[in-house]
TrEMBL record:
Topology of this chain in the membrane: Single-pass type II membrane protein
One of the protein's GO biological processes: carbohydrate biosynthetic process
Family statement: Belongs to the sulfotransferase 2 family.
Chain coiled-coil ranges: none
One annotated Gene Ontology cellular component of this protein: Golgi membrane
Keyword hit for Transmembrane helix: yes
Alphabetized UniProt keyword annotations: Carbohydrate metabolism, Glycoprotein, Golgi apparatus, Membrane, Signal-anchor, Transferase, Transmembrane, Transmembrane helix
Lineage: Eukaryota, Metazoa, Chordata, Craniata, Vertebrata
Protein's recorded name: Carbohydrate sulfotransferase
Entries under InterPro entries matching the protein: Carb_sulfotrans_8-10 (IPR018011), Sulfotransferase (IPR005331)
Compartment(s) of residence: Golgi apparatus membrane
GO molecular function, one term: sulfotransferase activity
Assigned EC number: 2.8.2.-
Amino acid sequence: YRRPHAKEARLSEFNQTERKAMLGSYTKVLFVRDPFHRLIATFLQGMGISPSFSSFVQEVLDSGMRNGSVAWKPLVSLCRPCLVRYDYVVMFGFLRQELGHLLRRAGLPAGSLLPELTDSQVQWTYRWLSEQMFSELSAHQKKQLSHFYRWDLAAFPFPSSFLSD
């Protein structure tokens, strides 16, 4: 989609006709990750100043939707899956399998372009980390997190998410 003299703009800044034309001209790929895994990764990367995972989660919950960081905001508030019809949704933890399929559909040689990903190791590691981190949270925090990410959990299949329980 070409727009003359276009500066960088948000999708919401285009009118409905322009949005439809623009979105129709691209292959739209959405990469999603279990929201609890996103929280763990953010905490481990030191993006929160909290000394413990429990206090970091409390910061996230206290910041809410408006003041929250992109690193932990619910995905549905960032990518608008109800408004944008994505052609592909790629789940973190199945990257090698799904990226291979996506590259083949695009007519690219999938095998040579993919990094060495060991999805099963990633899944096992996050399962173990999730168990450890989830045990640090109070029952109230667990309930609040499930509520905070309820739309992500409804929109995307995270069957083994600790927040689904």
